[in-house]
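Lab meeting prep.
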Amino acid sequence: LSLDDPDGSLSSWNSRDATPCNWYGVTCAGDASNTTVTALDLSDTNIGGPFLANVLCCLPNLLSINLLNNSINQTLPLDISLCHNLRHLDLSQNLLTRLLPATLPLLPNLRYLDLTGNNFSGPIPDSFGTFQNLQVLSLVSNLLEGTIPPSLGNVSSLKMLNLSYNPFFPGRIPPELGNLTNLEVLWLTQCNLVGVIPTSLRNLNKLQDLDLALVINIRVQKT
């Protein structure tokens, strides 16, 4: 009831139904007598309104939320951390603003986080270096400031890190990123990078795709 639904994408959502398992975008697991909501996919449905963490996080077995390419607005609340079992969160191409919630790393099972194409501002929280199982982190095309935090080098599970197209303050590539030995994709395109390319990046033996394009002033460090 808190969402705008101009295209009627949620017309099958009827509160009189015994379960929501036949509603559009809802996936359940279990048999007919024991069903539980495990995923919500409302991507490309043109819905709008706030992200209702206090509602969605009441679903104890929710593993995946995909709201890509909608008009989800306001900000991502701190109580997103109550979605304890969440593994996949895609809120890309929405209208979210203000700071990235520092509580996101409290989701112990989160593996995929895509917040691309929003209007988040301020710095990347240092707490983002405490993700336990995150494999994909994409913060592309926001309004993020500060510099790339060295603490990201602690997320050894990362396979893809994409921070491209943010108006960061001029800063170096943290040498600590060389600790991400599972990294396959590293994109820092147009991130106001300066200084040297740290030799620690040669430790990224699984790296397949590296993009440091559109830098201000960067050079290769001699070994």
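Slide two material, second protein:
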Amino acid sequence: FRSAIKDLEVMMQNLISSSFETMTTVQQGVEFLDVYQHLSNRETIKRTIDKKTVEVYILFNEELSWVNKDLNRKAMYLAPQMPHFAGQAHWARSLRRRIDRSMQFLVQATFLTKIGLGDETMEFFQTLEQSLDDFVRKIFTDWTVNVDRDSIKRLERPLMIRNLDDKGKLSVNFDM
């Protein structure tokens, strides 16, 4: 009986390890941990689940590092149709949403065991979150400094006018 139980434990450890090989997101890792959590009564399986919990936090830490590196890069890619300031703020907010979503899965996973790496990761997340918020505030401040104060007067001007050269056509009345 003992050897059969040992064999079952080894098979379950292999199953858990093989399922985590396909993990690519924090959400998947948390879902896998949730599935196998009820098996953690056995000490060997509990150790395996603890190792996989560390792997999930490492994956989240890598994602945070990627976002931090992307934030600190001087050049960012903005689509040609995006306005300069709004495009930068949109880009920063998309980075924020990316890490917020992963963080939300970790916070909702109340069954996860507390580990030291988890606390460090949470601090890194809060620091990065604050940096992203400060970046968006800075972009807004830069935009308010550069915005034209007489923009309301421009709204009173018609967008299209009659063409003075060719009487049958309309011309665009935009500032260039």
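Talking points for slide two:
The chain has a mean pLDDT of 88.
The beta strands are 160-162, 170-172.
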